[in-house]
Amino acid sequence: MPKTEHFQWYVEEFAPTEFHHHAIDELYYAGRTAFQSVAVLRTPTFGKMLVLDGDTQSSQHDEKIYHESLVHPALAAVRDRGEILILGGGEGATLREVLRYPGVRRCTMVDIDGEVVDLCKRYLPEWSDGAFEDPRARLIVGDALAFLKEDRGTYGAVISDLTEPLADSPSFPLFNGEVFRDIRARLAPGGVYVLQASTAGFHNMALHAKMARSLRAHFTHVASFFTHVPAFDNDWAFIACSDAVDVAALDGRAIDAYVDELRGENYFYDAQTHRRIFSLPLYLRRELAKPGDAFV
Amino acid sequence: MPKTEHFQWYVEEFAPTEFHHHAIDELYYAGRTAFQSVAVLRTPTFGKMLVLDGDTQSSQHDEKIYHESLVHPALAAVRDRGEILILGGGEGATLREVLRYPGVRRCTMVDIDGEVVDLCKRYLPEWSDGAFEDPRARLIVGDALAFLKEDRGTYGAVISDLTEPLADSPSFPLFNGEVFRDIRARLAPGGVYVLQASTAGFHNMALHAKMARSLRAHFTHVASFFTHVPAFDNDWAFIACSDAVDVAALDGRAIDAYVDELRGENYFYDAQTHRRIFSLPLYLRRELAKPGDAFV
Amino acid sequence: MPKTEHFQWYVEEFAPTEFHHHAIDELYYAGRTAFQSVAVLRTPTFGKMLVLDGDTQSSQHDEKIYHESLVHPALAAVRDRGEILILGGGEGATLREVLRYPGVRRCTMVDIDGEVVDLCKRYLPEWSDGAFEDPRARLIVGDALAFLKEDRGTYGAVISDLTEPLADSPSFPLFNGEVFRDIRARLAPGGVYVLQASTAGFHNMALHAKMARSLRAHFTHVASFFTHVPAFDNDWAFIACSDAVDVAALDGRAIDAYVDELRGENYFYDAQTHRRIFSLPLYLRRELAKPGDAFV
Amino acid sequence: MPKTEHFQWYVEEFAPTEFHHHAIDELYYAGRTAFQSVAVLRTPTFGKMLVLDGDTQSSQHDEKIYHESLVHPALAAVRDRGEILILGGGEGATLREVLRYPGVRRCTMVDIDGEVVDLCKRYLPEWSDGAFEDPRARLIVGDALAFLKEDRGTYGAVISDLTEPLADSPSFPLFNGEVFRDIRARLAPGGVYVLQASTAGFHNMALHAKMARSLRAHFTHVASFFTHVPAFDNDWAFIACSDAVDVAALDGRAIDAYVDELRGENYFYDAQTHRRIFSLPLYLRRELAKPGDAFV
Q: Are A51 and D7 in contact (CB under 8 A)?
């Protein structure tokens, strides 16, 4: 009776009645920053994983599904990709994807938790893949809220890679009308604001729908899109907002032309994938069409 | 310190290092038929679930995602929907979806495990929703392989809702060139053969790709499509095969016209959803383009 | 990669940070009576198990350790074993052990949950082993508290096989000075009151110590004893109280003479086992010697 | 719905159908030496724990139950406690207990895994509590088998704190007649050989019984004893062997006189505890009396 070799497990709680157990091959780091608990570990299925406050943030084997979805539809849609702003994005993979576009002159990334950024540089260098050393990268360790109040720059795209605006989350103050107006003021003409926007599974799409409802009061075009991210065990949603362009309706040839300009090869995203992730199933369209409350 | 109320759990093994734990609200049945182990239970997230040999087969809250995907792209594509054949499909939900089309004159369902069919009628009546009592339904409890050899009928669509052709599975003998030829011989002109076709996640798409490679030797058009099914914790794939029609390229208006003819409302599928599930991400297209072995 | 055959598990919560997982071979019953949730199941290690409100009550393979400990030290100690009273004891195994002594003329068992008694008769007949049909058995389905107020009988031993007097438990009202006086009034001269008395592990012996402190105000001799019960994953304690006899100091030859009179063979208990379970380790003696609060 | 803070768990496998899950408060170390995998962690219930090859070796909160049982019955029984030999014992707690007796002139400890010894010194200093720095301690990192062949010393007690002689274990070669003879040759007149000797629970006492049968061919007195060790979730057994003294029958006053000479206070062991752990329940005595195979 050979015993399993794995006696350390990472257990993610989805609900008090739903847990997923991942055997840990190696635990690189476990600790607590000023803002959150952090674990960096490796599992057989997903490779390295970053876990913040008990939630999987990204995994080595499928992070490109998430990060290409977050970055490229927005960048494909904007006219001027010279200046890009990222809110959050500690792992550096959002920055990496932005900098793959040669025409980006500067990408500013504002993350409140410098310790997480340092841990990711040390243990997850595959995520940033040198992006932090790119001379076009500007890393600001600080509060995105304060940055938005003080900054005078404008950006072709503002990419929000923050955690969810749950009532007890540090991201909660970043999700209200005042902040949306602050972000809108930072967009260059033709600019796009894109954000990760919670889950879109049949059983947990209410928060996403509320986020979409809230943003429709501030932007002309508000397009939900989503993809399954295996490491999240969830359909993960995003929202692309703009007064100038409907990202959902981008022309496929324009998308593929943009993708061709990127350094290196995409893993997930191109025009066909765009069509997939912006085509929503009936149940989600119905949910998004319902009236309801909003972040104000 | 209040204890959790749940002390019975359904634990699904995805790998010896990956387990998902679902608290059980109620266990309706657990036993073994001549062919497999069966459990019918209810969990807070997914409602009732059918579990065969330890694998989730379908859940009350999201089975329509699976069954609408399996049935409607194929039916929307075929010319003559009068006679339909289902291989497997014990829960009766595939039958239910087929019979929602008024023009179906008869739907034959061949399932080897009559005990599972009876258990589903008793404990999961929401799945079949009266379909077994529909006079157009013809249920044959028997071996699909023998049925295909003996049957002389032709069908607008043959829908395979069998378990996966793993080496030790009862479905293994149903996946080879001889059987593909037998199925093709049962298709009416313009007919479509559609099958559930394993997982399409980044880490487990090899079997699906092998199935697609195998079928390309037998059919002119072989279209993979997939959707995330939350209760499966996986991206679930299907393949639509035909000599007459490329199901992936169906016209959206034709799809919506077909959907409008169905009795009752769809939950998941229409033209936009069709576009979603047939648009494949880059990594899967690359996998499908690779050479490799096939079922012969 | 063969998967485990077991996908149903019984998970016992010892603390929010301690869980024991038992694979279920068969689930015979799961439901709820007027008083508590009940499950009857079978596991590879312990055989059949009775689970009330998520706590293991007894297992087929080691219930004799518990029931022989509860019954025989007390019965060995009393002068007149003609009339015995059991409070609780739904499985019928305490009754079984009492009736193994031929000199018992009548054993009265008062249990509030008749449904549990019926379930045990049906699914766990090995526990009672015919005891409920013994003409000397008198089963009263009712409230032990009311019985003690109304009953006029006296008993050589009163055996309390109730659940723990936790604040939210139905057993809580059964643990106070008034009840101790009621029980004492039911003891024949030379009688013994014995009760299961919570856990005695290094990390959870406080409730047991409080029970012992409480009883010292009412009885001349109050003897703690305990044994590890594997199915409980705990050192399980009992208390034997008497004004006439110090059960801890019973003569070994008298014990073995009593054991020899029992019908059938003991599994666990005799004079040497008595010496074991009444000899307490240093840390528990120190805990029992500390002052502290009591049930009044 | 607050989520649990604990997402790292230590899962101990007792059988493929029995797992115990402990939430990890902190993981101090996880790695692999030349001989075994090692983890040092802390849980809410047990404090720090040492885990070798997935098995709990000892826990901060109850290691004294194990180590006082291993050391003091033997030392209480021997005439000359000047020279003591420990085989294994990496944590240093066995050494600590031996050196608490002031009359010990030298204690030699032979452990094959110097890396484990170093990890214990660093992360578990509470276990050795300075013992490695005691001038009477002699640590030899090396193979106990070779040591026994080459050493010419004699010892009042030889204490074996090795892992179990399972077929695939590094301890297997240390459990046969030749080794027993080598150990016996190292005992001073009146000496005692004591060893940890596997589990004594009702469901897993076969290996212990085989060890006892094997030793009876080599020693006049072979006394089994055991105690529940909560962190092991098992009744843990030991065997004390001697040609001169029956350790089971030690006089209680002699034991307490010995205990009084120890530096500091015992937590678990004294004459009453000795009576407890050497008094065996019926089922274990019956198992020990059965004939069967032996290590030869």
A: yes
CB contact under 8 A, D13 and A3: yes
Flag whether residue C9 sits within 8 Å of chain B, measured between CB atoms.
Answer: yes
Q: What is the mean pLDDT of residues C232-236?
A: 95
CATH 2.30.140.10 positions along chain A are 9-59
Reported pTM: 0.90
Cross-strand pairs, C187: C155
Report the C-alpha gap between B296 and B283 in whole angstroms.
26
ipTM, 2 dp: 0.95
Here the tokens at position A181 are 């107006």
Catalytic-role residue among B111, B113, B129, B161? B161
Q: What is the pLDDT of residues B202-227, one digit of tens each?
A: 989 999 999 999 999 999 999 999 99
The CATH 2.30.140.10 domain(s) of chain D lie at 9-57
Q: How far apart are CA A68 and CA A63, in angstroms?
A: 8
Residues of A in contact with D27 (CB under 8 A): 8, 27, 30
Say yes or no: C164 contacts chain B, CB-CB below 8 A: no
Q: How many Å separate Cα D260 from the centre of its chain?
A: 22
CA atoms within 13 A on the CB side of D83: 10
CATH superfamily of A9-59: Spermidine synthase, tetramerisation domain (2.30.140.10)
pLDDT above 90 for D3 = no
Question: Reduced to 3 DSSP states, what percent helix, strand and coil does chain A have, rounded to the nearest 5?
Answer: 35, 30, 35
Q: What is the DSSP letter of D102?
A: T
Structural fold of domain B63-289: Rossmann fold (3.40.50)
Residues 6+ apart with CB under 8 A from A57: A49, A50, A51, A91
**Strand runs (DSSP E) across chain B, as ranges?**
8-15, 18-23, 26-32, 37-43, 47-52, 55-59, 83-88, 106-111, 137-141, 155-161, 187-199, 221-229, 234-242
Dist CA C47 CA C56 (whole Å): 12
Quote the tokens at residue C288: 């029992």
Q: Which of C190, D213, C30, D184 is nearest to B5 (CA)?
A: C30
Tokens linked to C54: 């998520």
State which residue of chain B sits closest to A280, comparing Cα positions: B273
Give the residue-averaged pLDDT of C227-231. Answer: 97
Q: What are phi and psi of B23, to 5 degrees?
A: -65, 140
Pick from A295, A292, A86: nearest CA to A175: A295
* CATH 3.40.50.150 intervals, chain A: 63-289
Which of C43, C46, C282 minimises the CB distance to D270?
Answer: C282
Q: Closest approach of chain A CAs to the CA of D7, in angstroms?
A: 5
Q: Is B167 on the interface with C (CB under 8 A)?
A: no
Q: Is the pLDDT of residue B1 over 50?
A: no
Which of C1, C4, C8 to mutate to probe the B interface, most B CBs <10 Å? Answer: C8
- Check if the beta carbon of residue D84 is closer than 8 Å to that of residue D186: no
CA distance readout (Å), A128 to A90, A142, A160, D90: 9, 19, 17, 42
Q: At what angle do helices B271-278 and B63-77 cross, to 10 degrees?
A: 100
Which of helix, strand or coil describes residue B45? coil
Sequence-distant (6+) residues with CB within 8 A of A269 are: A68, A69, A72, A73, A259, B281, B282
What pLDDT shows up at residue A109? 98
User: Active site includes D168?
Assistant: no
Q: Is B10 on the interface with C (CB under 8 A)?
A: yes
B37 touches chain C (CB under 8 A): yes
Confidence of residue B3 (pLDDT cuts 50, 70, 90): low
Looking at domain D9-57, its CATH class is mainly beta
Spell out which residues of chain A touch residue B18, defining contact as CB-CB under 8 Å.
20-23, 43-45
In the stretch 87-106 of chain C, residues with CB closer than 8 A to chain B read none
